[in-house]
Fold this protein.
Amino acid sequence: ELSALISLLAKQSIDGEALSKKVSKSDIKDLLINETNKAIEKGVFGVPSFIINDNLFWGNDQMEHIELLLAGKDPIDKEKLNVYLNRPRAIDREIIKK
């Protein structure tokens, strides 16, 4: 409920009333819709999600990997990863009868 959110923000010295007015503007709503659509197109799922250099990371457990990537020390072998990613997902594979 909006009033509960405004109350929580006020406890943190954030002007919840002003924020609620801003997020209700049509340009802000349109921005949210557009950003959500972009995220869906890029395959974003889970929270938090980060896209860095077209690499999708999601989940708090990926923060260390993100730090390594940003430091130029990505531990992932891109060639092996590309081979792995080119395999069809299990849901897309044909059923093999023995």
Summary: Strands lie at 49-52, 55-58. DSSP finds five helices and two strands in the chain. Helices lie at 2-11, 16-23, 26-41, 63-70, 78-85. The chain has a mean pLDDT of 81.
